[in-house]
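Task card 7
Instruction: Convert sequence to structure tokens.
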Amino acid sequence: MVDSPPPMTVRELKALEHRTGLPFTSVLLVRNVTAKTSKNDSPYLSIELGDKTGAFGVTCFSDSPQFDFFKNLPESAVVRIEARTDYYQGRLSPRLSTVVQLTGEQLAEPGLFESLVEIAPEDPNKLWEDLQGFIANVGHPELRATVQAVFADIGEAFKNSPAAIAMHHAYRHGLLEHTVHMARAARALLPLYPEIDPDLAMAGVLLHDTGKVSEYEGTLVTQRSRKGLLQGHVVLGYQLVRKAGLKAKLDADRLERLEHIILSHQGELEYGAAVMAATPEAVFVSMVDNLDARMGMVQRALRQAAEGDEFSERLPGLNAALLTRKPASPT
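Output:
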């Protein structure tokens, strides 16, 4: 009896260099199923399947035997697919032949969760240790107490939360990674801008996205919670910071400035900011946030690039495909 080949990861599939019609099996997480209607009014499903190495889309029309299967799948389902490679507009979009949902017993197999859920590339324990160091180095006592109070309230959730659903640091421990990366960047940049209060800016960096622990939920697939949909992380973070600042007896002027950093850090009103940044510290935090968000997209695209690929797929957050091939070595 010939053993069937092992399931392929998304990264392995994308490394096949557009070889059409190759049969394969994969075990994948159903990240999203969206019902749509074509130009001729025919219903179809746009399905995103993925694992920790990446994701791809599949289109399932109403006359497909898998249409009702995917339409009725519970959220965060894990499936085993048999398919053949195919491509649409240059992107992997396989033709499915068989799809089976894994049972609870199969989901408990060792290593399955780890193969499906992307995690931050850095050790989360080391990141958490670094975060504690940045908190301890906030010199202003009441500002430091404010930051400590927030993390005493949300610490475990913050350690595990993603920073986004799709755009940047959208994986387990991603929020912690994003915040520590911002703090590292801020530490390097603050000496260049003596006009900025360094303690206020660092407190803002550490607290700017804390509302995301309530905005998002889900173990396998991240989605917005009821609070996330009704209020959003900017407002949720503002509430956390205000409560902690009052408890720490932070003076009214600094508390208002810290709250302003939280309310304005998204940069633009159209991106979710409640107000535009209007203090030196708020402008600084907003810019460092944007820098690390974009570089986080770059880092993830480079990690997920298949060997031999010159460009990534188009990254919505950058509005471009990324050149992933390294510069030629000097001769």
